[in-house]
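Figure-free illustration: sequence to structure, shown twice.
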Amino acid sequence: MKKINMTLSTSLLIIMVIFIFLYGCGKFQKEILIPKVKLQELIDKKFPYEKDVVVARFTLSSPELIFEDKNIRMKLLYNSSFLNKKISGYIDFKAQVIFKPEKESFYLTNFDIINIEVNETNFSNEDKISSTIKAMVNNYFEDYPLYTIDPNDVKQNMTKLFLKDISVKGDNLALLLSL
């Protein structure tokens, strides 16, 4: 028997034909799950993050991902020297996950602060710290993907064409593919 060597493009073509057939039968719907553990590993590689801002130097570290509804929450430890004062604490964000097909990647965006803890007493500039860290995180994640599709994985490549919804299911990021 001869072995048939298929290229990636041939495989994609065959899968697309199958999907079109299933679409005609009204049956194509596939869910791909990306485990929280995998996403946490990818996020951990991006930290610590240091940034000088006009009157302060911030360090963000120890990210913790928390899955919730369609959102992902991220809790970060921050340290800052702000107007010659050492300040530290935790900040808890809620973010949305979006897919940018042109970059074949998923990104965290639209960070909203849920809670901020300042470990120092008698500190009155909590709003200034909150807005500075929020801007830093939004700018930082604008260019850094949460997850990038593997170009050699046929299933992941189908995401570009058929992604209909992104949600959180338990400890997984759920991608709903549908025609």
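We now fold a second protein in the same way, so the two outputs can be compared directly.
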Amino acid sequence: MRGLWQAAALFATVIACSAAENNGFAWEPPRSEAGVYTADLGMLDAERDEYATNMASYASNQVITAKASPDSLKAARRLLGVALQISPRNKRAVVVCFQLAKGVMPEAQAGEYGAQAFARLLLSRGQLLAKQGGDQNLRLARCFIQLAAEIDPKNEDAVYAAEIQRLDHGELDWSSVTDTPAKKP
């Protein structure tokens, strides 16, 4: 009988350590080694970094709020993928990706924008990028507009713009920003 209790205690300890080790969620960090957006993108470096920081803060706060649900992790992967593509060395994006990969819940960040304001900002910037034209601007515009619709589904302008994009160009291929292959030497 004593051996049974010891085995049960050992099993419980292993389960508890395993849960503590990965915090109960699986995170696959975005791979963005190739750098989809170059200096030809219609954004200044400071603007890229600011958007990346806000995307990373929003993503981490959503993961915390949703207790790392699969949907919140999927949305965070998209946001962080875009953030790392436009600003590969953005401190907040790099830190959040590292923490999630280690199973550590990031600290909540006071964002500059609420969900509605951030969605409006992404929509406006996406529309401006689309007007600027060029392959990179158009690809990022699609991402920004789609993110705006996902962040605030009550924003009719963002939802309409995202749906028109989907009808005209098909579903957005997020792997272009979340699963980019490494550059060949």
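Summary for the second example: Helices lie at 2-22, 45-65, 70-86, 91-101, 115-132, 135-151, 156-169, 175-178.
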